[in-house]
Amino acid sequence: MANQQYPTDGGTPVQTLTFHYEGGGSIYFYLYPQPDAKRERVATVDITYEMPGWPSVVELDKGRLHSLIEAGVLAYNQAQTEGQVNKKGKIVEAWIDGREFLTSEDLTDIVGNAFPVLTK
Question: Is the pTM of this model over 0.90?
Fold first, then answer.
């Protein structure tokens, strides 16, 4: 189950989801959980992504509120789209890195058993 507790250590939390393609290459999604008014729980998640060689990072669905699970779904759907558009083929593996908000179990629930989900 996604960790909704917002960290109190003062750092800026970020979690990285990396999807690897069968045709080579990867796409990186950065989830930036934002706190509620009391700074106790995650209220929404900002999402950016990039592929190596791109000139800049792209914001995904900016200005909308997203739960951690919704952010994972958006990242997965966009990774599939970018794989098709950039002729990278299907996704063969995903990695989760950074602070644990979205768990590997959450991402496995999102993608089914289409490919392995690993914690880096």
Answer: yes
